[in-house]
Request: fold
Amino acid sequence: MITDKSRLRTFRRSACERLAGELTSAKGGLCMVHGAGSFGHILARKHSLHKGLSRPAQLGPVARVQRDVRELDLRVIGALIDSGLNAVSVPPAAAARFAKGSITSFSPDRFTDLLDIGLVPVTFGDVVPDSSMGFSICSGDLMMARIAKALKPRLVIFCADVDGVFDRDPKRDRRAVLIPELDRRALSEIRRSAAVNADVTGSMFGKLERMLAIARDCEKCMIVNGNVPGRLEKAVRGKGVVSTTVLPG
Reply:
């Protein structure tokens, strides 16, 4: 969405600036989570960082990935501030502790303290200290799940590069049909080939499973195409938009 995942450290500035501008339509408190994209996944996958510490040679890549995702986060923060949103960064390790690739404790006050005074907390996917693995990967989705559980937001919007969830991979099959409402039954009926693409944060099916859980902790959870100008803005404003609504599961 905001990076070219096939090219190392490649930022899509115009896309990020447009999405930041569309977020200014949000009413009330706003919290943002973004992925690491090509600033994190390429090196993390190359050096198997998602599997934890197995050799000293991984420590250099851990440091570089942390540096790179913070550079990406600063660019996102800059786009938000330039759009008029008072955004501040909250790295995952500042709000959570990790073991076996999962969050073992979470401090929502890192977010609520900022929201209470009108700031926009921004967190992101990152490589984090892990008490059992040395380090692990914390995805943006994992942080979103814990934030939703703690804050019970009115609306959760995931931006994708397609119109929502389809019954098969829309990039490979023209017969793909958009699923307007995704529940557990609908997920079980999706062709597995529709979710073969995976990164160091797991398969697409794993991400959809997490969205079903997130939907239990908010009034509405939806997936929109962030590449189509105006879609995110309409969703934020509560307007009808081509999307998939994720139902609690």
The first helix runs from residue 13 to 23. The two ends are 26 Å apart (CA to CA). The domain at 1-151 is CATH 3.40.1160.10 (Carbamate kinase).
